[in-house]
Amino acid sequence: MATAPRRFFRCACFCSENLYVARYGLHVRFRGEQQLRRDYGPVLRSRGCVSPKDFEQLLEELEQEVERRQRLGPESAARKALIANSYRPARLEIYNPLQDVSLAPEFLAAAEYSTLPGADLEGLLQRLETVSEEQRIYRLPVFTPPFCQALLEELEHFEQSDMPKGRPNTMNNYGVLLHELGLDEPLVTPLRERFLQPLMALLYPDCGGGGLDSHRAFVVKYAPGQDRELGCHYDNAELTINVALGKTFTGGALYFGGLFQAPSALTKPLEVEHVVGQGILHRGGQLHGARPLGTGERWNLVVWLRASAVRNHLCPMCGRKPDLVDDEGFGDGFTREEPPTVDVCVLT
């Protein structure tokens, strides 16, 4: 008898926590006007929200964002179905199951080493670049240049089509949700299961690296007249990989602080330049952002890697035990069953 597909959920806090106000560079909790004034009045005034009109505009934006988030699951499922039925890809090979030939030799070697009996962190670190030992940020080539180019061509073809498009996340306005485009099953899931999980198990065993059972993958685009930078934030993920796909650009470096729970987390940010084809690995709770783009266009594949064994006990967005709500697909990576537990990612 066939096994029922595993169900994933989101936390109810998604519609009230971590609403991003780009104009004021602030993430807020929003439960209504009085709560917003009480909790954020002074900091909002210090950042330019001073007149009644400013505050009314902010309220309207937050109410619209809450409504957008409430509709997100059904609307995303509808877009995915329409794209599957009506969209005609330009690069069909991108939709084939992921092949080793698409992956950089260094990435294949690191992943293969990680699966060997006796593999350890010291041996793995010899096969990738340590960007920051203290912050546990690493980098290595992931995709070959031809694959990056083919994926970019497909993404641009989709962008120029008349298909409906969802925002990649709550902060970026331009990009592509890979599950809506039909690339979760052939590309992202095998990337996570076959290659990233063994790597992350050695690099981040305390953050669920060995138990990654879901993900959210999207491509973000930065260009003149569109998104040019990204404010400081942390990810709704235990771990993250961020791969630069292209094109030609200047500026736009990532910057990192400490973990979001730590005091003085952004006193001395670390800047990391993008290298096309290479992926930056970091903990989801690491504060980070993107400096302004100088020239050109920058496209990046971002995969939020999630471990239900960690997040079932503590939602990273609200800091509480998750209040589970039905959702589409992988949801936000929460499950009702209890897989083997691991220690919640610690401040090291």
What percent strand? 15-25%
The gross shape turns out to be: globular
Radius of gyration equals 20 Å
Number of helices: 8
The total strand number stands at: 17
Low-confidence stretches are none
Largest sheet: 7 strands, antiparallel
The helix/strand series, from N terminus to C terminus, equals: EEEHHHHEEHEHHEEEEEEEEEEHE
Helical percent range?
25-40%
Head-to-tail CA distance between termini: 45 Å
Helix/sheet category = alpha+beta
What is the averaged pLDDT score?
92
Biggest sheet: strand arrangement? 4-5-13-9-16-7-6
List keywords for this structure.
348 residues, alpha+beta, four-stranded antiparallel beta sheet, 23% strand
Can you describe this structure?
Helices cover 31% and strands 23% of the residues. It is of the alpha+beta class. Strand 2 (19-21) and strand 3 form a beta hairpin.
Give the secondary structure arrangement, pairings included.
Layout: E1 9-11, E2 19-21, E3 26-28, H1 33-46, H2 52-86, H3 105-114, H4 121-125, E4 129-132, E5 137-141, H5 145-160, E6 175-177, H6 178-181, H7 184-203, E7 214-222, E8 230-233, E9 239-246, E10 249-251, E11 254-259, E12 270-272, E13 278-283, E14 286-290, E15 293-296, E16 298-306, H8 308-311, E17 324-326
Antiparallel strand pairs: 1-17, 2-3, 4-5, 5-13, 6-7, 7-16, 8-14, 9-13, 9-16, 10-15, 11-12, 11-14
